[in-house]
Amino acid sequence: MKKGNYIVVVILLTCGLASCFSNKYEEIGQKRVEGSENLQVKFFQLDVFEHISPIDFELLNENDSVLIHREYLTGETPMMESVDKFSPFLYDSIFYICYPYPKVLAIHHLDISKSQMPRDTLLRKLRKHDRKLIDGKK
Questions:
Q1: Beta strand 94-98 pairing with 87-91
Q2: Nearest partner of 93 among 113, 106, 75, 110, judged by Cα
Q3: 3-state secondary structure the chain
Q4: What is the CA radius of gyration of the chain?
Q5: pLDDT single digits (tens) 37-85
Q6: Cβ–Cβ < 8 Å for 42, 58
Q7: Predicted structure pTM score
């Protein structure tokens, strides 16, 4: 094969492989928030060539209004087929996601006046309700 043909084949192969991956966050699933009647969490993962990428989430109400905008959840995670291992909960206005349970990866107070509470304070409040919870971000 001539050098010029070889270069063309390599370029076409590279373009073909690159086109298989969008490098965009794609929804991998959603789950109802346990402890709430109307909240849903959508999970997204970056579609990349390496098959290991971060996962983001967003919290929505019954009108699909975003309560928590897209936020980082996990780092280098293998490509997910489903969101079965994620467990979103709501307890006393504290929203949290475990992956896998009992590791708390995300935690927010949904009451605007208390939304700036530190993570460890929120986790202490949750541990009074469920002693198994551990901080998954440490």
A1: antiparallel
A2: 110
A3: CCHHHHHHHHHHHHHHHHHCCCCCEEEEEEEECECCCCCEEEEEEECCCCCEEEEEEEEECCCCCEEEEEEEEEEEEECCCCCCCCEEEEECCEEEEECCCCEEEEEEECCHHHCCCCHHHHHHHHHHHCCCCEECCC
A4: 20
A5: 999 999 999 877 667 888 999 999 999 999 999 999 988 778 888 899 9
A6: yes
A7: 0.80
